[in-house]
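Entry 12.
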Amino acid sequence: MIDLAGLIELVADWRDPSDGEAAKSQELVLGLLRGTPAPFSRDQFTPGHITGSACILHPAGDAVLLIHHGKLHRWLLPGGHVEIGLDRQAADTARREAEEEAGVRLDGSVPGRLAGIDVHGIPARKSDPFHLHHDLIFRFRAAEESFVVSEEVRDVAWCPVDRLEAYALPGPIRRAVQRALAE
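Predicted 3D structure (tokens):
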């Protein structure tokens, strides 16, 4: 189980004074973590739940790994829901999802670091109502260039950092990539 107090500290200590949208998301994530009974449960729809995304830099540092999301039909970072009992840290969620969705091998000598926070809406689907994903975006570096297109995604690609606009990535993801590159 993820250490709630440690995660609250990690999120509270994260700073980017130039990104007001991330600051608002940070406030919402802290409210979720401090004030809800099951912040990691994918069944907690109000006010939502924690998810993790992986901002994976190419070994050369000049591209970021993107997946074409099967359900949302758009390019995003690999990521998904916390697996209670499996993920010990929030970064483990992002790492595990990246490995499952894109078969990418991450450089174990470079720990996952919080690079962004983004609270965004998820459309209603089947029995799940509209809800919020309180997404924590962690920076990783790939150990090698290879990846695999899994059944969970439509496509996987290395996006050169100077072509982020071509993939129509949301602003919070573009800003997280820029922070990841700056580290």
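Annotation: The two ends are 28 Å apart (CA to CA). The mean pLDDT is 95.
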